[in-house]
Amino acid sequence: MSVLKDYTDEVKRQLADGSIIIAPDDYPKLVVQAVLLYSNKIQREVVLDLPSDGSGEFAISALTGFDEELSGDVEIEYPISTSGSPNTLDRRSWRFYRKPAGKVIRLESKPAAGQQVRFTFAAKHSITEAASTIADAHFDAVCKLAAAEGCEQLARHYKQTSESGEVTIGGQAFFGTKDKAYESGAKLLRMQAYEVIGAGSGADAGAASVTKNFDQSDSRGRDWLTHGRRFR
After folding, report:
1. What is the pLDDT of residues 62-105, one digit of tens each?
2. How far is residue 97's CA from residue 59's CA, in Å, rounded to a whole number?
3. What Cα–Cα distance (Å) separates residue 131 from each residue in 8, 67, 125, 138, 189?
4. How many angstroms separate the CA atoms of 131 and 210, rounded?
5. SS3 for 102?
6. What HEC string does 140-208 produce?
7. Could you tell me the pTM of the whole model?
8. How far apart are CA 145 and CA 187, in angstroms?
9. CA quadruple 144, 150, 155, 157: dihedral, nearest 10
């Protein structure tokens, strides 16, 4: 399993000489940006069992990892099956409801206090100094997404200098003004990354989703990934 240092080291290698321009503290931020982009394409599945308090309501805050802008609808099972097909609740039998204390999931039926209800939903991935939820097979792809974000940062830096010359990005040489070279490098790295994670060329591909009601987004040219859609 690769951890944060493995990712930052590989991003520095991808950026080669340009890596000295980026502040050391910025490399983890580049990885965070890449993880958000990756999570837009491939989410991780979270399964939680929560005890009922008898009210038929479950606080969204209790769903660890749930993200209103990404997770979409949840799948709810009650009663929890022990064999055969799951007892998945019909979507019409529950709803999201916003209360002064926060959003809840309100079931039409009210499981007795202490009864377990199972929630399954999509969540963002994470990379820390000790662990990662990203498959090793996608290590290189996520590193390329992070390096592409670094290329965008370097392109902005060199726009102010009009400096020309050869730059190496991901083992490939680029020529011309360095700002254009890094812009081209960013496009190439994204294309290579998205080819691996199955989202087309990556240049204009929308976010693929395994959940309902998931919005599409393109973060290129922005320092941080944002979503305008509000979760219903």
Report:
1. 999 999 999 999 999 999 999 999 999 999 999 999 999 999 99
2. 10
3. 14, 20, 11, 15, 24
4. 24
5. strand
6. HHHHHHHHHHHHHHHHHHHHCCCCECCEEECCEEECCEHHHHHHHHHHHHHHHHHHHHCCCCCCCCCCC
7. 0.79
8. 10
9. -170
